[in-house]
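User: Fold both of these, please.

Assistant: Here is the first one.
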Amino acid sequence: MNPPPASGARARLDAIVKAYDVRGIVGDGLTEDVVEALGAGFVDEVGAAGGRIVVGHDMRDSSPGFAAAFSRGASRRGADVVAIGLCSTDESYFASGSVNAPAAMFTASHNPAAYNGIKFSRAGAQGISLDTGLAAIRDRAGDYLDDGIAEVAEPGRIEQADVLADYAAYLRSLVDLSGIRPLKLVIDAGNGMGGLTVPAVLGTAAGLPALPLEIVPLYFELDGTFPNHEANPLDPANLVDLQRAVVEHGADLGLAFDGDADRCFVVDEQGGAVDPSAVAAIVGLREIARVRALGEERPTVLHNLITSQYVPESIEAAGAIAVRTRVGHSLIKDRMKETGAVFGGEHSAHYYFRDFWSADNGMLAAMHVLAEFGSHAEPLSQLAARFTPYALSGEINSTVADVPSAYTRIVEAFTGRAEFDEFDGLTVTGITAGDEPFWWFNVRPSNTEPLLRLNVEGEDAATMTSIRDEVLALIRS
């Protein structure tokens, strides 16, 4: 088949290369010839010719074929490929970090079955965004689609490797769960990669000793068609089965992983969702205490600007430095490296660890929650309440054709009673006096859709609800 013309190649790539990764509908822009060209462009951009790269994939039907096509393109440009097969995204980060090699992970994370994509890492699990190499990979791939991939004199080899046992052992070395009280938990893998990693890390499938955990599995069968529900726990509709099962089984808590198992959501014994900001505070305080005991006087912890105000409050009260960041996983990985932060937390349940090459790891966050909860006798609902003193709206999306006009309406309505900043989207913070309850909200446009995303927090539920409703009326008018 003749390569498409330059304009066609560029258009295909522009449609699927996003700010932080590649994402698209299989067969519509995202095809094996495109993926092979991206593999070649990736090797050129990260300078992997004569070295090695890691390639892994999730359980989607198209993922093995895409991983093979990418590996072909990479080997043609001189890179040896370590194909680790089925894995979670954080397992691919482990492989990248432990052997200090660039990596590509084939997954569309929480997106529906029709989608697939690629998450790229430089050596040491360092993130790649549009501004730090992804645009160059896209442009190189466009040239290869136009002109064909020029094979080097000594193409690389492709070899298979299984890193699951090493990954599981490494996580066990970071968080010791052997001494916690016995816990019963329901885990919903959503037919995603948690079905592979949970039995290895929290069970005995990787040959590790049994932990004091009784696990009730939900949807552990790897199935990229997602026959039970979408593997997107951020949508409350996809937590319903887990919430019901926790109550029915009398479990102590529940965990839900997204499709590529790099994010973890927590449910308490009553079936209530634990806010990711509470998880960020719990894990952040544990990491602060750990490194301070080792002599690090003022560790740094990152939080994005949409987490609860309680997160920086608790970080600073523990004697650490709280650093506010924009939203976005590649950006936060970069900031983790720049600041030397021990931990970073996002409202979307991405949690980043210095001891995990500053990459995000949902399983590691879950283990910290189990360790903290398992050292106390109180139910999780009580523990979580202590870390959720304020009222949060959660993220609310609105279709907006004219974002600047919506911003103008908001600024006009809140001028004189709030302060504004545009660090990431528009953050509006109430000017309060005396005993007035505090509040703030943030509106951010989506990178890929005509949406405005709203997050609101108030000192109490009534304040949050009042501000939320007022802002939504302005956005949607």
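And the second sequence with its predicted structure:
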Amino acid sequence: MPQADSTQPQINRVRLLGAMGIGQILAWSSTYYLPAVLASPMSQATGWSITRVVMGLSLGLLVAGACSPKIGSMIDRHGGRSILAASSILMALGLALMGAAHHLAIYYLAWTIIGFAMAAGLYDAAFATLGRLLGATARSSISGLTLLGGFASTVGWPLLAYLEHELGWRGACFVLAGAHLLIGVPIYLSFVPRTRAAHTAATGNTEVNAESLQPSAYRQLFLLLALLLTLQSLVTSSVSVHLLDVLKLLGIATATALAIGMVIGPAQVVGRIAEFTWGQKLHPTWASRLGVLLCLAGIALLIPAQPWLAFVAIALYGAGNGILTITRGTLPLVLFGPAGYGARMGLLASPMLIAQAAGPIGAAMILDAFSAETLLTLLAGIAFVGLLSCWRLPSK
């Protein structure tokens, strides 16, 4: 395991997290959250169906899943500074190409480029960068980064709507491309330190050195963790895309459904704040169990189709999802230690991103063929399997 170099200056964590937080808000706003605002204007202006437009994001997620393991290994070897900066350059290129696209093939090429950028610039790459820089002491910084990144939809959606209204969807893409070049690249190069040895400060008895595990035990533990994170990604991606449709199919009025959907964001922030404060004293396995349990309870409470209960359900679901956004980064760090953290995060990200791409498509097929109650029951079952797998992870 690499030893900390005492001749190197201490990292200013506040500046580092502030810079990376801005980078995450920009990255999520211009990739994952972009279709939510721009898909309809794109469809109306080009004649492409909404399905074809949204499939661009699915393509990007599949590309990101395919190259995430390689990105994680590169961060382990070279650090994340240049990779995060490169992600902003690739996002700028992809967004500029998207803004200029008049043919569907060019639009999908743009999302392919953005897919490479997402692998190199979203949470998994950012977590790996913090792990490489801070080693075993990175847990609180990962929590802080997700807390800042949680404002991506709060900032991104209104900004995208404003840009689309003033400049059209093509102009919005060009402005976002410029923002990556003028904001994203400079902040990564200015505030993320160059490659340095990671800290190895102990975290009590909560850390397991991956090198001390037998190959079979390591493989079983890793597969359990991958199963948990992949199943949760499948659930959350399906809910995030189809929640409003599900609520309407349950007989809840559109205005009420919109109000219920607005609860998710604040609930996620509350969950992240709770984990960032008192949750630091809790083993990430127990935090993950709590997060999955809250998500499971929230999904199950939607099935009765009672509006007042749906508000409670989404609050529970949002809080659980907020906690799990943090533990997807802290759990691998504490279970396996900082050595090889980047490569491990890349391997875990691959099936998660593929699940995020496939989940909404599968959920749409179930809604078309069956009912909202069937989809919710299936998602609750998937969350329950995730809870079982989480319960088998070590918690001390």
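Residues 13-191 form a domain with the Growth Hormone; Chain: A; fold (CATH 1.20.1250.20).
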